[in-house]
Recover the amino acids of this structure.
């Protein structure tokens, strides 16, 4: 039956390139660790995001009057609605965690070296867009915590020199976080960001297929192994493990809804953004109000922007990697970034 279906399809569609890919694609045989699979795991969580997000859209209403009630309806009246929402929220966090691990493992293995510069840049942008997904999606339940966290997060935008106030009004749709902000965040979350992500993800995946798997500098290659089914089975095993972790967490720790946002209420004590913004949030908190005549927050955001730009352009800065050599300076900078992010995040949780 399957063979007849394939024959019928081949008579109408040229499948030779796909058959060639399946039969001929190989990956280098060398010492592989679990870090090779976090890119595929992040893709799995992104697919879960799409499916669960579409299911939530059947019931969600993006207005300040109905958003909270519609999420409450999903969680209490829709069969397995609480589980779908919990899966959507947890998979978003796990996807960003997987992307961080994928990016830093790629960094330390120097997988960004020629000819993979564009692959690295598109991957870096995908991480930034995923954090944008998290930021815009956090407000959508319109609960108290999300409301005030969004007010804090958008306030940070206002200190950007020259265009800060304009950006703030564009994001909020006015002077403060209101129903207009919710509508704008919903539109960005379900239309603008997905369109950009699909385009970048398509380029990223095509380049990975064309360039093949990168081998770390100095690694001993012991020949090639077929991608199908050898490596594919390992990827599927990683997906199954990711699914087990996601299902377990979403079931045991359902994502809470909290209480409905009240714009006239006072902000709860110790309001903080999501965990993936905590390192920036904590760093900006400890910077003095004025440094060398500049506002501390402006200086902090400028430093984060510069570091992000250097990180994105590291394939062009790391000349030693192009000569198949390791740079202690680049390795040290990577570890400083990891330690800074982890330390600041823990400090913010304990603060």
């Amino acid at each position: 039956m399957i063979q007849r279906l394939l024959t019928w399809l081949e008579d109408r569609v040229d499948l030779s390139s796909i058959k060639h890919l399946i039969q001929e694609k190989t990956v280098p045989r060398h010492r592989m660790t679990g870090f090779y699979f976090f890119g595929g795991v992040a893709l799995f969580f992104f697919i879960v995001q799409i499916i669960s997000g579409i299911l939530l859209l059947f019931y969600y209403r993006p207005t300040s009057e109905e958003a909270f009630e519609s999420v409450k309806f999903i969680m209490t009246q829709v069969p397995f609605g609480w589980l779908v929402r919990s899966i959507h929220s947890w998979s978003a966090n796990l996807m960003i965690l997987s992307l961080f691990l994928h990016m830093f493992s790629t960094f330390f293995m120097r997988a960004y070296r020629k000819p993979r510069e564009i692959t690295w840049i598109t991957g870096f942008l995908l991480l930034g867009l995923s954090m944008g997904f998290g930021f815009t999606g956090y407000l959508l339940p319109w609960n108290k915590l999300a409301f005030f966290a969004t007010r804090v997060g958008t306030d940070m935008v206002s200190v950007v020199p020259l265009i800060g106030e304009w950006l703030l009004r564009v994001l909020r749709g006015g002077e403060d976080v209101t129903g207009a902000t919710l509508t704008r965040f919903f539109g960005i979350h379900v239309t603008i960001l997905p369109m950009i992500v699909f385009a970048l993800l398509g380029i990223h995946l095509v380049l990975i297929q064309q360039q093949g798997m990168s081998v770390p500098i100095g690694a001993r290659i012991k020949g090639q192994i077929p991608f199908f089914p050898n490596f594919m089975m390992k990827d599927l095993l990683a997906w199954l493990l990711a699914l087990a972790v996601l299902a377990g967490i979403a079931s045991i720790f359902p994502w809470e809804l909290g209480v409905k946002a009240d714009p006239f209420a006072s902000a709860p004590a110790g309001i903080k953004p999501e965990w993936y913004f905590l390192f920036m949030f904590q760093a900006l908190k400890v910077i003095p109000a004025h440094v060398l005549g500049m506002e501390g927050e402006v200086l902090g955001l400028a430093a984060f922007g510069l570091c992000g730009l250097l990180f994105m352009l590291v394939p062009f800065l790391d000349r030693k990697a192009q000569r198949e050599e390791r740079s202690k300076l680049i390795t040290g900078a990577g570890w400083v970034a990891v330690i800074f992010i982890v330390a600041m995040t823990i400090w913010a949780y304990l603060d």
In short: The longest helix spans residues 179-211.
